[in-house]
Amino acid sequence: MDKNTWIGFLLIAAIIVGFSMLNRPSAEEMAERQRIQDSIRVAQQMEAEAQQLSAEISAQVQEHTDALSEAATEGDAQQALQERIAATYGPFAPAAQGSEQTTVLENSKIRLHIANRGGRIERAELKEYKAYGDTVNPLCLFRGDEASLAFTLITANNRILSTDQLYFVPLAVDASEEQQTLTMRLLTTEEDAYIDFVYTLAPDDYMAGFTIQPHNAQYVLAQNVNSMEMRWRQLIPQQERGRKFEERYARLQYMLTGGDMEELSEQKHDTQRETARIRWVGYKDQFFSTVLIADNGLTSAEFESTPQDTYSGYVKQYDTKASVDFDLTGHNPTAFRWYFGPNHYNTLKAYDNALPDEQQLHLKELVPLGWKIVAWINKILVIPMFDIFMGWKLHIGIVILLMTLVIKLIILPFVFASYRSSAKMRVLKPQIDEINAKYPAEKMQERQQAVMALYNRAGVSPMSGCLPMLFQFPVLMAMFWFFPTAIELRGQSLWWAEDLSTYDAILTWSTPIPLFGDHLSLFCLIMTVANFGYTFVTMQQQNTDPNMKFMKWMMYLMPLMFLFIFNDYAAGLSYYYTLSLGITVLQTMIFRWSVDDKKLLAQMEENARKRASRPAKSGGLMERLAKIQQEQQRLAREQAKQQAKKYR
């Protein structure tokens, strides 16, 4: 082919590529197409399910029609139906049919709806709290089919039944000053054989009692039964504005009878099998939990945690399968307790303290307070201090301000020591520049040795500025862990922020930005700008080494990183860091006023003359560093000699 032909082909290819690019659908069009395809797929699935349901209904209708056609009268048809129920349910045939209804137990804190089908709690409400965006209804931990609890029964004629298939008979609620008691009775064909699910609720309590009490069950259940299989499933609805943090703190936790805590992954689908005896299982959200406590423990347990789709309205689904002890005679009832309540440290700690040490539940571990030393600081300093200020009935903004002031006073000696160390390094800068000029870069070891000698004479340690910062770090991390888990901040407003427990968005957009999100938080933005300004002023006043330009730009980059990191965090945390930065600026101004560089240099020179007149002490940090450098220099010289001999 000649040149013109090749050019023609290239032009045609360019036209085709350009045309395809111009006609390529936009991101919005692609999203719309995907939505339509998803809708079609869901519709097809619903149609298939509807066809399957229709087929099942038709089969049932046909079955009943055949049964009726075989019976000569309506009485015969009813008798045939009762015979089939008796064959399927055995001694529990009286509980096979019924109409669904609920009975309510409530106190000042919780309201429980107990269904007669399955005898289970089908709705749990916390009367003191509300879900985000709902200012009317109490917060609901679960409702209807979002949760299920069932126990397996093996009848005397070897039928395997599940309690969620059976209808219980609610007895009258027995109310007294101490507690309310509701008995849900599972009747059998034996007049004096039944199984009771007994619920108790004390006034002003998040804890409800739950006992399985059989009566003459040996006549209707298999004689070799000494345990039951329990199946507990629950969907965790999204209750907060910030789903990202709700997903991070929502997890399935359980405690072994020995006191060890275990948990499933909060980020991905996770399963775990446990052979040891388990004291309690907790289905946890960011601020609330449903905990099932087994007095005699659970055995042979299997746990599963499944994250839910972002648009489902749910955060996680938790599943537990386990065995529980069961005494047919009823002499040793199977006893549980339910906790429906907030992840509030002091509330959970009060339940722990109500029991002897050997029976401790360690429910307070449901509140994540950070690593061991950080959690320790939170427990003995941050939480008690927060409780004291909250007890004064102050506004939450004032409470956080007072906490910031107290923490700044605690770490003030470390901050001053760090500033004084940096001031010493600053006044020695001219002498260090002279050493750098005297020893070129090729003689780096001699330069370092001379610098270390200068530090030794002046009584300055390069580590003296780092150690005070190291002591401050656990306190700063304690606050970092405290604010996102403090339920006291939930629903508390400050200026434009409606809820300090979540982000305070002033701008939102539909398409999330990677690593940033779909909003901009104002408190976080203010903290970032203030941090950037403080860094700029600080860097301008320091004589930065030209060779450390990368470190300088890293200091400017840190505030921008804070914007990305804290944009999804609780507004209360950003508010605290902004206050802390403002106090730091004030402290720095006071330090600069109180520390005179000329006087400091004169004092260092005087101390150097005094040390020179005294016998040298061995074993100091600077001396050890100097010896290390000398040894490195000696090894380098020997290595150079060996290399020279090798190439002769």
Brief overview:
The protein has 648 residues and is α+β, with helices and mostly antiparallel strands. Helix content is 46%, strand content 23%.
What does this structure look like?
The mean pLDDT is 80. The radius of gyration is 36 Å and the shape is elongated. The two termini are 65 Å apart. By secondary structure, the chain is an alpha+beta fold. The chain is built from 16 helices and 21 strands. The protein has three domains: 279 residues, Distorted Sandwich (Beta-galactosidase, Chain A, domain 5); 210 residues, no CATH class; 67 residues, no CATH class. Helix 6 packs across helix 7, helix 9 runs antiparallel to helix 10 and helix 10 runs antiparallel to helix 16. The longest helix is centred in the first third of the chain and has 44 residues. The chain has a 15-stranded antiparallel sheet that branches.
